[in-house]
Design brief:
By secondary structure, this protein is mainly α. It contains 2 helices and no strands.
Length: about 60
């Protein structure tokens, strides 16, 4: 539903956007039982890369219309 709304907004106002279809991109806290070694969630990987804790981040995607 949000993707349809975003599409209409884009058509009406020229908004440029990227939609990531990614389940649970942020993950949960290790405090509550979730811990990944190595990390697999997108947002922590982005933050680790920005902080210099990772050399790079590779994102594989399929572009659809």
């Amino acid at each position: 539903m949000f993707e349809r709304l975003l599409q209409r907004y884009r058509e009406a106002y020229g908004l440029k956007a990227v939609v990531f279809r990614y389940f649970n991109a942020a993950g949960a806290s290790a405090r509550y039982g979730e811990q990944h070694m190595p990390e697999t969630h997108l947002l922590p990987l982005i933050l680790q890369t920005a902080a210099g804790q990772r050399a790079s981040l590779e994102l594989l995607a399929k572009i659809t219309n």
